[in-house]
């Protein structure tokens, strides 16, 4: 116990003041506290854990935020009723300009639910007894969820036995359609339960759900299982298809941009052509003497069987010969999207022509000779 | 129908799920990729896309539906959809390559195929009518058949037991067989070649010999099989 207060020695009152000399050797001293610092009274700060926000506090913050939003709208001369979060961000950036590089360090004004992390309310009552029966496991939401899921599994099995007894199992098979969705990832499940999970816990949950899904009559618990599934977006929607443009002679053309490692390329694909390709004002046969690069240029056209139909003019800069060829391939594939049907665009995507190759040169690490090569190992 | 579909979906879920083994301090993940775990391999073959929708089975239909939802990796630079690109030839070219000189490796391989073709055509013209049918002139067919003939069926692996290391016969995976065949061919040509002979000439000789099940590479394969047969007694040392 740190002794940071001021203590003074005080003489205890002798029993008989007249005989001080007699009691000279029997003087006893007591310590008396006259002054303390706050450091002594405060407990160990680090051990108390993250700050707990009460519901009243959060409610207060939300009210303040809403009021502040209206004040801000008035200040900027906008209508307080239709002041969106984007307008707030723009207003704050205007009123408090910051030159800091770290975007998260700049001044922000967001709804308190986004700023204060979601925490659970106090889990015990006034008599200090916890509400939930699994509180003392430490992970009450996780175990109660697994308990609930297993209960559903047993219900489905009971229903199946019931049908089997009546002989109606073969006709009443109801499966859940899981195509187009994926299981929630660990972070999303943590958010749902407001509790930290380990990898093992998450795997246990997913394995139990998969087991549930394999049962023939799991359709009765469909909406429960779908709570743990997230919809996957159709990938084709993410591909941008530009409309065709027409030049002075009435020839249709389309532009596309592509990159690979450090190369950047732009390609203009013209209709009614004869398969002529010009790269940086030079014929492709002279610019790419290697066969492999020319094959890569031809790849999108050959895949769509449009080899002799289109003309191409492209510019490319940066990188080496292989990465320039890859960049032009991506640019021409993107330009060709305007000339073909949606099904063909999907086929091109599945052939890997419309994905920008994300592979880059791996950096050299300190303590090693290269990205992976280590220095020669010496025994001593 | 339900069980295999569920199994496939389980496989998808397992692929999307984190690894079963939690992070161990001694083992850092070195095999990472710029692509996320949900990216699928691209399918370049045009015939797959030309199939009509009605001619597909249930499984293939579900496969197609799943593919529309997953992102796809970009195709590599040595792969095209043309009839001339062959994955075995690409693998062989990469193994021949030294110091990143793909141009030289590819030129050697094309010259090898040309040399094989020339030799076979000469043989064809010099042969009689009955023999002409049995002579194979397609260099790609000869290449594939020669590599297939060079692949060992059984391999040896080192197992330490009681202080001594034993050569134990064990089955080989397909990839390993292909790799060993190509490796033996290339090392044979590099080591036992006169310094005045070109690599493509020596390679074409070896490939034609392997196609006819003769030559040093086939001999090496047979040596491997004999060793495995001789060490049959130690086969029970293998526990997988």
TrEMBL record, chain B:
InterPro entries: Ribosomal_uS7, Ribosomal_uS7_dom, Ribosomal_uS7_dom_sf. The keyword Transit peptide applies. It comes from the Eukaryota. It is found in: Mitochondrion. Keywords: Mitochondrion, Ribonucleoprotein, Ribosomal protein, Transit peptide. One of its GO terms (biological process) is translation. This is Small ribosomal subunit protein uS7m. It comes from Mauremys mutica. Its main location: mitochondrion. GO terms for cellular component: mitochondrial inner membrane; mitochondrial small ribosomal subunit. Coiled coil: none annotated. Residues 78-232 form the Small ribosomal subunit protein uS7 domain. CDD domains: uS7_Mitochondria_Mammalian. Pfam families: Ribosomal_S7. Belongs to the universal ribosomal protein uS7 family.
């Amino acid at each position: 116990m740190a002794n940071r207060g001021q203590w003074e020695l005080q003489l205890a009152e002798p029993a008989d003041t007249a005989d001080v000399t007699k009691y000279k050797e029997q003087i006893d001293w007591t310590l008396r506290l006259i002054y303390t610092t706050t450091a002594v009274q405060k407990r160990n700060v680090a051990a108390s854990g993250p700050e707990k926000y009460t519901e009243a506090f959060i409610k207060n913050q939300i009210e303040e935020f809403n009021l502040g939003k209206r004040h801000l709208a008035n200040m900027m001369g906008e209508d307080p009723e239709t002041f969106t979060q984007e307008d707030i961000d723009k207003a704050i950036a205007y009123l408090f300009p910051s030159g800091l590089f770290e975007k998260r360090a700049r001044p922000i004004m967001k709804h308190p639910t986004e700023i204060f992390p979601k925490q659970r309310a106090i889990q015990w009552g006034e008599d200090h007894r916890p509400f939930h029966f699994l509180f003392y496991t430490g992970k009450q939401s996780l175990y109660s969820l697994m308990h609930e899921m297993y209960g559903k599994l047993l219900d489905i099995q009971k229903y199946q036995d019931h049908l089997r007894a009546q002989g109606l199992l073969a006709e009443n098979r109801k499966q859940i359609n899981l195509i187009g969705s994926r299981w929630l990832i660990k972070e999303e499940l943590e958010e749902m339960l407001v509790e930290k999970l380990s990898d093992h816990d998450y795997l246990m949950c997913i394995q139990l759900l998969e087991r549930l899904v394999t049962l023939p009559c799991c359709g009765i618990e469909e909406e429960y299982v779908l709570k743990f599934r997230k919809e996957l977006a159709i990938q084709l929607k993410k591909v941008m298809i530009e409309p065709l443009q027409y030049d002075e002679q009435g020839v249709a053309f389309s532009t596309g941009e592509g990159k690979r490692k450090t190369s950047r390329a732009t390609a203009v694909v013209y209709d009614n052509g004869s398969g002529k390709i010009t790269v940086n004002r030079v014929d492709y046969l002279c610019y790419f003497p290697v066969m492999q690069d020319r094959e890569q240029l031809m790849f999108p056209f050959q895949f769509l069987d449009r080899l002799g139909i289109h003309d191409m003019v492209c510019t490319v800069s940066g990188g080496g010969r292989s990465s320039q060829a890859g960049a032009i391939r991506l640019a021409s594939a993107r330009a060709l999207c305007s000339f073909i049907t949606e099904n063909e665009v999907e086929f091109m995507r599945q052939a890997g022509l419309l994905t920008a190759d994300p592979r880059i040169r791996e950096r050299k690490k300190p303590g090693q000779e290269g990205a992976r090569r280590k220095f020669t190992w010496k025994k001593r | 129908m339900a069980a295999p579909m569920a199994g496939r979906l389980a496989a998808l879920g397992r692929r999307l799920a984190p690894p079963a083994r939690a992070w161990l301090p001694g083992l850092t993940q070195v095999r990472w990729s710029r692509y996320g775990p949900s990216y699928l391999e691209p399918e370049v073959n045009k015939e797959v896309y030309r199939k009509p929708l009605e001619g597909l089975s249930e499984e293939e239909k579900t496969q197609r539906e799943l593919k529309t939802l997953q992102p796809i990796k970009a195709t590599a630079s040595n792969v095209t959809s043309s009839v001339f690109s062959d994955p075995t030839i690409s693998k062989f070219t990469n193994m021949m390559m030294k110091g990143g000189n793909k141009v030289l490796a590819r030129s050697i391989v094309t010259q090898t195929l040309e040399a094989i073709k020339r030799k076979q055509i000469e043989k064809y013209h010099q042969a009689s009518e009955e023999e002409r049918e049995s002579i194979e002139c397609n260099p790609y067919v000869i290449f594939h058949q020669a590599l297939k003939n060079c692949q060992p069926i059984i391999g040896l692996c080192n197992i330490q037991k009681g202080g001594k290391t034993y050569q134990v016969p064990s089955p080989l995976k397909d990839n390993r067989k292909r790799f060993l065949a190509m490796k033996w061919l290339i090392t044979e040509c590099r080591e036992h070649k006169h310094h005045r002979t070109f690599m493509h000439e020596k390679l074409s000789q070896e490939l034609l010999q392997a196609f006819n099940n003769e030559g040093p590479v086939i001999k090496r394969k047979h040596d491997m099989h004999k060793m495995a047969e001789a060490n049959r007694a130690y086969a029970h040392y293998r526990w997988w």
